[in-house]
Design goal:
There is one protein chain. With 342 residues, the chain is an all-alpha fold. Helix content is 70%, strand content 3%. Helix 2 packs across helix 13.
Length: 342
């Protein structure tokens, strides 16, 4: 009886992520042919987000650090969103897109950080399969929206610099609304479909996700059976929502740079380039980490590398976005001064 109790207790600790993070939940019962019994394929109703369980001695330090980061992201992006709506000097298409981008960053980081903070604070890392699917779906949708919105912002700068006389006509309010609406909605059906495909797979073995949120690649590693179709779908969606917008951004900036180099004075060149450099820095940070994460060859690599790359596009980009735009943009700095002086 004592041995049975210890085994039961140990199994519960592993499911909650309190035990050794490298010990897996036992595989299901096998029939005489060595195949999982059909009823055991649906037993996995929850996952364990290991997160940073491999460094238990700094759990509270990480909790405090990420809590501070989350508060900074909410306050800084919220401030940019407010000033771009309230200040009359910031009522151009560029700041309309910036306001949407700041609001998107708040949504994006809120899909991952609150759950990670709860896991770090309580050490109860379990998440239901429905909760995991919901989190993954929102992360994918917000990620696709960010790629498309960054491409829209690059197109806005292209029109403003390469066709300045036609800019008010081309980027009128109606077009801006359509571009933003498209950025928010185009990726929804694809990401819902991709999430449904992943969670339709049988999960019959280990339930420990070596990540701090429910990302698609770590979850596919836990699925039983052939995941080739799902992996090809991941690459296809990544090409559509990451590579295509990235190429459009490169095309826009190649035209912009060619125009800048033709300007007569170095002062004019610096002034025009300053309006684009902030956006370009965000593009490099976000797309660089996302492309390496989702489009690298499927070879052996450490989960630690995945976590670091994910931190770049899910947390560091929302953190640096307001700093980049406020520190390098005179109009935003003036609007901030007006808001603080009120």
């Amino acid at each position: 009886m004592q041995r049975s109790y210890e085994t039961s207790r140990r199994h519960k600790e592993i499911q909650e992520g309190k035990g050794n993070p490298h010990i897996n939940v036992p595989f299901p019962q096998m029939d005489h042919q060595g195949k999982p019994l059909e009823e055991n394929l649906t037993e996995l109703m929850e996952f364990v987000l290991l997160g940073f369980a491999d460094i238990p001695h700094i759990q509270w330090f990480l909790f405090g650090l990420f809590l501070i980061i989350y508060i900074i992201i909410l306050m800084s992006n919220g401030t940019i969103f407010l000033i771009t709506k309230m200040d009359p000097a910031l009522q151009s298409p560029m700041y309309f897109f910036l306001a949407n981008f700041s609001f998107l960053e708040i949504c994006y980081v809120s899909a991952t950080l609150p759950r990670m903070l709860m896991n770090l604070g309580t050490q109860r890392r379990r998440i239901s399969s429905v909760g995991c699917a919901t989190q993954m779906c929102f992360v994918l949708m917000f990620g696709a929206t960010e790629c498309l919105l960054l491409a829209v912002m690059a197109y806005d700068r292209y029109v403003a610099i390469c066709n300045p006389l036609h800019y008010p006509l081309v980027m009128n309010h109606r077009v801006c609304i359509q571009l933003v609406t498209g950025s928010w909605t185009i990726g929804i059906p694809a990401q819902i479909g991709q999430t449904y495909q992943v969670f339709s797979l049988p999960f019959c073995g280990p339930n420990q996700i070596h990540h701090f949120f429910c990302d698609i690649l770590p979850i596919l590693k836990l699925a039983c059976g052939d995941t080739f179709v799902n992996e090809m779908l991941v690459y296809t969606v990544a090409v559509l929502f990451v590579i295509v917008p990235f190429l459009l951004i490169l095309g826009s900036y190649s035209k912009i740079i060619s125009i800048i180099l033709k300007l007569p004075s170095a002062t004019s060149q610096a002034k025009v380039f300053s309006t684009c450099s902030s956006h370009l820095m965000v593009v490099v940070l976000f797309f660089g980490s996302a492309i390496i994460m989702y489009l690298r060859p499927n070879t052996r690599h450490s989960e630690g590398t995945d976590k670091i790359l994910s931190l770049f596009y899910t947390i560091l980009t929302p953190l640096f976005n307001p700093m980049i735009y406020s520190l390098r943009n005179k109009d935003v700095k003036m609007a901030l001064k007006k808001l603080l002086c009120k």
